[in-house]
Design a protein that fits this description.
The chain has 271 residues and is mostly helical. It has 2 domains: 60 residues, Arc Repressor Mutant, subunit A; 191 residues, Tetracycline Repressor, domain 2 (Orthogonal Bundle), CATH 1.10.357. Helices cover 66% and strands 0% of the residues. Helix 2 crosses helix 3, helix 7 packs antiparallel against helix 9 and helix 12 runs antiparallel to helix 13. The chain starts with a helix and ends in a 15-residue tail after the last helix.
């Protein structure tokens, strides 16, 4: 790229300062949520923590809803980033295991790799239990007087998480296989609705695969919600094992329903 083009595309000093100030506001708002819970979030409280006026805060976020939207989108993006990093690390580990030298050295052999959809699920759980207040902002009691903008940044960020699960669950199967998946028979109305979903999200899947993914997601997410909200605290340190076994069973069940997957298949990204 010519030097003059690089200068043109580089953010201006004003843009960099605004980006830094915006990040500082988001960081302060997240700290407020961690300390006081999502329901206590207010523009006045964030402005006070930053030593600025509410009017100054409105210069960056025109309304409380705009601030909440940014916080929700960031929480989704942070979750997706963590999941992607975990899956990428698992992919690199798989390449190491496939190295002939590693295979030939008994001392270097490791346990078989888990399917990467399980890796993604475990990282989703880890992020949630590590950031319970931010997770509650996403999936807890809805904030009064807040409605996410339709098709806005929160929707786009949420699609990233869905895309990780979708890719790792079904990435190695053909569309014909997914269309023939053994899913409960769908009513014509439901099938038509699923077929009209946006192609950049669940609409990229055939309806049978969509229903299997949503069912698995409901079980997986339910286990995380129970843990984050303290309903499985009686299991203590065993909560991670319960989650891992539950998700592994879900993945195995989904893949058994796909023709041609083979007995005991765990998908193309697993052992």
């Amino acid at each position: 790229m010519p030097a003059e083009e690089h200068v043109k595309t580089r953010p201006t000093l004003r843009e960099r300062r605004r980006a830094a100030a915006t990040q500082e506001i988001l960081d302060a708002a997240e700290r407020h949520i961690v300390e006081n819970g999502p329901a206590a979030l207010s523009m006045r409280a964030v402005a006070r923590d930053l030593g600025m006026t509410v009017q100054g805060l409105y210069h960056y976020f025109p309304s409380w809803s705009d601030l909440v939207t940014a916080l929700i989108a960031k929480a989704y993006d942070d979750t997706a980033d963590a999941m992607e990093a975990a899956v990428d690390a698992a992919a690199r580990a798989d390449l190491t295991r496939a190295d002939p030298a590693v295979r030939a050295d008994p001392a270097a052999r490791t346990e078989p790799a888990p399917p990467r959809v399980l890796v993604a699920a475990e990282e989703y759980r880890r992020w949630a239990v590590t950031h319970p207040e931010r997770f509650q902002l996403l999936y807890g009691t809805p904030l009064r007087q807040y409605a996410a903008p339709a098709g806005g940044p929160t929707t786009q960020a949420m699609i990233r998480i869905s895309a990780v699960f979708q890719r790792e669950m079904f990435g190695g199967f053909t569309r014909a296989q997914l269309e023939a998946a053994d899913a409960p028979e769908l009513s014509p109305a439901l099938r038509a609705h699923l077929e009209q979903l946006p192609a950049h999200g669940l609409g990229a899947l055939p309806p049978p695969a969509t229903t299997l993914l949503l069912s698995a997601w409901g079980h997986l997410h339910g286990l995380v919600v129970l843990e984050v909200f303290g309903h499985t605290a009686f299991l203590g340190e065993h909560q991670a094992e319960i989650f891992r076994r539950g998700v592994r069973n879900l993945v195995d069940d989904v893949h058994r329903r796909i023709p041609g997957a083979g007995p005991g298949a765990t998908g193309p990204s697993g052992p």
